[in-house]
Amino acid sequence: MAPPPAVAVAPGVFRIPTVGSWAVNSFALVDDDGSVTLVDAGLDRAPARIVAGLAALGKRPADVQRIVLTHAHLDHAGGAQEMAARTGAPVAVHAEDAGFAEAGTSPPNDRSYAIGRIFARLQNGRFPPVPVGEKLVDGQLLDVAGGLRVVATPGHSPGHISLLHEPTRTLITGDAIFNVLGMRYPPRFFCTDFRMTRRTAHVLGELEYDRVGFTHGPDIVDGAREAVRRFLARTVKPHTPE
Fold this sequence. Notes:
The protein is 26% helix and 23% strand. It is of the alpha/beta class. It is globular and about 40 Å long. The relative contact order is 0.15. InterPro entries: Metallo-B-lactamas (IPR001279), NDM-1-like (IPR050855), RibonucZ/Hydroxyglut_hydro (IPR036866).
């Protein structure tokens, strides 16, 4: 059975599966005026699925006013160039990942692990480069559907962010946490600094939210914060300042 083109996570917040039912997801946030903010753009073949997801919401590419990337990896930014061209929307990404998005190359892998050094030699991490119209910073409140908070969670990439939609109390984790066969961290060989990924994820346990959307994995809409905090309690070392 084909996956649904779009899944409601919260009022005005929708997950758009771009690979399988939930293997790789983008998100659409619909504002009161009908405009759309797209979060992540999948692989380079994802735009057709994203456009189909928008259509299921009664939206067209022209309704997309902003594209926000949680980070500059090819499974999140690969479709950004085409979606920016189709929509005319500017692309926003954290300042630390902006140069990678514009160059069309993923940040370096964590080479402190042997598997990271091996993976770095095997993959090129390239995707179509995309101009960056806005460089995001931690704590920034975007004027998106009543307020979308930028939450810096670096480590998976230098400028990795999660996003908190404050009106619906919905967290989008990006790749700070996966929900694939249960919650877990991203594979260490995909991270720039895996230890930092584990360390900064504690921030997600301190926020207030009721639902969680994952770029990799299905949503949690009941007891989401408690589930995330249980996961972090099992795995995250206490945070210490750098």
